[in-house]
Amino acid sequence: MNKPPISPSSAIQLSHLNKVYGTQKVLCDLNIHIQSGEFVGIIGPNGSGKTTLLHLISGAVTPSEGEVHIMEQPLSSYSRKALSQQLAVLQQDGIPAISFPVHEVIRMGRYPFLDWLGRDRYAEVEELITLIMDRLELHALAERPVSELSGGQRQRVALGKVMAQQPAVLLLDEPTTYLDIRYQIQFMELVSRWQQEEGLTVIAVMHDLNLASLFCSRLLVLHEQNIVADGSPHDILTEEMVERVFGVQASATPHPDSGVPQILLKRKEEGK
Ligand SMILES: Nc1ncnc2c1ncn2[C@@H]1O[C@H](COP(=O)(O)OP(=O)(O)OP(=O)(O)O)[C@@H](O)[C@H]1O
Questions:
Q1: Which residues contact 1 (CB under 8 A, 6 or more apart)?
Q2: Which of 51, 234, 241, 256 has its CA 20 to 30 A from that of 221?
Q3: Which of 221, 110, 92 is nearest to 160 (CA)?
Q4: How far apart are CA 263 and CA 49, in angstroms?
Q5: Contacts (Cβ under 8 Å, ≥6 apart) of 172
Q6: What's the 205 CA to ligand 1 centre distance in angstroms?
Q7: What is the band of 270 on the pLDDT scale with cuts at 50, 70, 90?
Q8: Once rounded to an integer, what is the mean pLDDT over residues 29-34?
Q9: Residues near ligand 1 with C-beta < 6 Å?
Q10: How far apart are the first and last CA of the chain?
Q11: pLDDT, position 8
Q12: Could you identify the atom of ligand 1 that is nearest to the CA of residue 222?
């Protein structure tokens, strides 16, 4: 089997990746290369394997066949702690409703960098925590237990915790599902600013095609166990793709500011 070459700026390389659950093939011979600094959205219908793909990248799920490389090293060669120094995962319900105060939860992101005496090997950790609290406007909430926060506030704290982790790669699994439109945009803007300023690589499973189009530079479409389309939102978000992959009639129209495609859903006509 020929292995695809690993480029020097490779953040993630998936080679001939297969995943089977019991007798069900979920992902079949996936080959994906993601460069450092890309903002990639994974879209596709329910059950198409998006979360499974993220879990394969994070090591939470083992491939049935094939290989995953993170920052040019085989995933299997990382210890748990070493992997946490490179890669962070944020789920749709970021952190549970625990009673710890916000500032402590942000600090928990530093866990992979503590030595055996609990000392942080990064000298400027206090400045880092303050910067994160500033950027996410969390100072007013610093002493509040996370259990008392709203879903939107909690997701901001979850983002702060992964920012404190300072990963090279951030995996997001439908991170805006429980957020209202203001917090959806705010969350995506924060991730986007972090990605642009620090060269972070972001891979986000997204159900909202319009939000994905606004923020991702590249979209991967998962359907029938494989990537059926890979390209810029402009190339990917077409009426034809939405009908073929999601079975829905839609109209694609350019965004009035940026020109990226936005999808307007059509109702089924009466009697059809
Ligand atoms: N641990 C598991 N054991 C068995 N089957 C699983 C397991 N996890 C996922 N699957 C199956 O794999 C398929 C893909 O699931 P996955 O959650 O990856 O899809 P998805 O695209 O993220 O779906 P959704 O959009 O609904 O969140 C589904 O048919 C699911 O039932």
A1: 16
A2: 256
A3: 110
A4: 22
A5: 89, 90, 191, 202, 203, 204, 205
A6: 13
A7: low
A8: 96
A9: 21, 26, 44, 46-52
A10: 48
A11: 47
A12: 21
**What's the CA gap between 69 and 16, in Å, rounded?**
12
Measured in Å, residue 134 CA sits from the centre of ligand 1 at: 37
The span from the CA of 39 to the CA of 201, in Å, is 6
- As beta bridge partners, residue 43 has 221
The DSSP bridge partners found for residue 39 are 202
Distances in whole angstroms, Cα of residue 66 to Cα of each of 1, 4, 235: 10, 12, 28
Q: Per residue in 173-208, pLDDT tens?
A: 998 988 889 889 999 999 999 999 999 999 999 999
Helix (H, G, I), strand (E, B) or coil at 188: helix
Residue nearest to atom 2 of ligand 1 (CA): 21
ipTM of the complex as predicted? 0.98
How is the chain split among helix, strand and coil, in percent rounded to 5? 35, 30, 35
Q: Note every long-range contact of 128-131, with CB atoms under 8 Å and residues 24 or more positions apart, other chains counting.
A: 128/164, 128/166, 129/103, 129/164
Cα–Cα distance list, 29 to 11, 50, 91, 267 (Å): 19, 15, 25, 36
Query: What whole-number distance in Å separates Cα of residue 146 and Cα of residue 237?
Result: 38
Superfamily for the 10-265 domain: P-loop containing nucleotide triphosphate hydrolases (3.40.50.300)
Query: CA Rg, the chain, in Å?
Result: 19
CA gap 6, 145 in Å, rounded: 45
| Helix (H/G/I), strand (E/B), else coil: 79 | coil
For the chain, the structural domain boundaries read 10-265
Q: Which two tokens stand for residue 162?
A: 């992964």
